[in-house]
Amino acid sequence: MGKGSATPGGGNEQICPEARIRSGRKRDMPTLRLPRLASAELPKPFGCYPFLLYLYRKYMNEMENHPVILSVAGSDCSGGAGIQADMKTISALGGYAATAITAITVQNTWGVAAVHPVPADVVRGQIEAVMDDLKPSAVKIGMIYDADMVGTIAACLRKYRPAHVVYDPVMVSTSGKRLMTEEAVGRVKQELLPLTTLVTPNLHEAEILSGETAEGLQEMREVARKLADTYHTSVLIKGGHLPGDKAFDLLRASGTTLGYEQPKIESRNLHGTGCTLSSAIATYLARECSLQDSVRQAKDYITRSILAAKELNIGHGNGPLWHFHK
């Protein structure tokens, strides 16, 4: 046996770490300092073991920093838009994505071939299951195909009263496929719009909802004001389809109109931009940002998502964004 530390008795007996602790000699041992935490409210074994309590509290605190956002929308099997784009966006921005699927679409980067609505009672069941358990901080609504489904979703919103509701009125796909019936549009205006925090139509959708044309900035302002005043909500009109090399968006909120202008980005990968923007806004609202800050940060996020996707080679048509950029 090798030479050990001298003991008080003068021998060469080795002293193990436990012996050092017992004898008060702790200089060779690392010290773990834990905060003093109350444990009375927790069941055993947490109340008996402060370190387990510390880990539990740390875990719960981390979970609280990831708000739940419920996306009520259609499924895109190609992954570029709809529920799939929402889940990627919410996750990339630090939220937890829950879903209620309203329709199964058959589509790819070339376009939408078919739409198969999910029965309204199944949509209700999905929403109630999430709301009763996960308690989402915000709800993002996308594609709603028929009138019965509009009524079902509106009834759920009245029942649960979520703090934030962002509605992206998906009515016609980029390829021209109609994604909402005429009757559904009427019920959206009557029942759903008054329950929203923010509505995010593009120019064509804003015209359908308002019954007015919006072919220039002044008309966009009038349409935004009309929608906001009529339905007592905030409105973000996306003007990316206006002619010219600049993209103009208008936010009407609390009686004020704000404009956002930036250069258009030329890219073949723009599939799912509306879904991404609306779910990003919902996520920032769930993280307790103001509406204006949520819109600003969401627009910055989608700009970076478009730029990050410019060199993507996914599909042969209108490709997706890249949501997980740095």
TrEMBL record:
<dbReference type="GO" id="GO:0005524">
    <property type="term" value="F:ATP binding"/>
</dbReference>
<keyword id="KW-0418">Kinase</keyword>
<comment type="pathway">
    <text>Cofactor biosynthesis; thiamine diphosphate biosynthesis.</text>
</comment>
<feature type="domain" description="Pyridoxamine kinase/Phosphomethylpyrimidine kinase">
    <location>
        <begin position="76"/>
        <end position="321"/>
    </location>
</feature>
<dbReference type="InterPro" id="IPR004399">
    <property type="entry name" value="HMP/HMP-P_kinase_dom"/>
</dbReference>
<dbReference type="InterPro" id="IPR013749">
    <property type="entry name" value="PM/HMP-P_kinase-1"/>
</dbReference>
<keyword id="KW-0547">Nucleotide-binding</keyword>
<dbReference type="GO" id="GO:0009228">
    <property type="term" value="P:thiamine biosynthetic process"/>
</dbReference>
<feature type="compositionally biased region" description="Gly residues">
    <location>
        <begin position="1"/>
        <end position="12"/>
    </location>
</feature>
<dbReference type="GO" id="GO:0008972">
    <property type="term" value="F:phosphomethylpyrimidine kinase activity"/>
</dbReference>
<protein>
    <recommendedName>
        <fullName>hydroxymethylpyrimidine kinase</fullName>
        <ecNumber>2.7.1.49</ecNumber>
    </recommendedName>
</protein>
<keyword id="KW-0067">ATP-binding</keyword>
<dbReference type="Pfam" id="PF08543">
    <property type="entry name" value="Phos_pyr_kin"/>
</dbReference>
<dbReference type="GO" id="GO:0005829">
    <property type="term" value="C:cytosol"/>
</dbReference>
<dbReference type="InterPro" id="IPR029056">
    <property type="entry name" value="Ribokinase-like"/>
</dbReference>
<feature type="region of interest" description="Disordered">
    <location>
        <begin position="1"/>
        <end position="22"/>
    </location>
</feature>
<keyword id="KW-0808">Transferase</keyword>
<dbReference type="GO" id="GO:0008902">
    <property type="term" value="F:hydroxymethylpyrimidine kinase activity"/>
</dbReference>
